[in-house]
User: Fold this.
Amino acid sequence: KYMVKNAGKDQFHLRVRLHPFHCLRINKMLSCAGADRLQTGMRGAFGKVQGTAARIAIGQIMLSIRTKDVHGVKAVEAFRRAKFKFPGRQKIVTSRQWGFTKFTREDYVAWKQEGRIQPDGVNAKLYE
Assistant:
């Protein structure tokens, strides 16, 4: 929301790097009078799905954004505001790569002028 408001909706590309595939389950137990005749305790205790969650390892990348350099400060501020929505500690790191590619900024610009690199969507192909 911060990036749309301050940079514009066409000025950045946000990539969510993790998705909630892990199912959280609950084995509901009754606690009223006569509940002991209805329940089976731990027999068949595989519960019903209550929600989903994303399992994250330490150091795993959660979100990535690519934008032009003029909006770089706004992107860092947007991530600073977003990290309060997640439990635990988050670190904001500015990459030296060109967008979502594996090439550094200097290499990308030099190879593009030489014609060795070809843009391919959000990525790029290097021709030797």
About this structure: The longest helix spans residues 72-82.
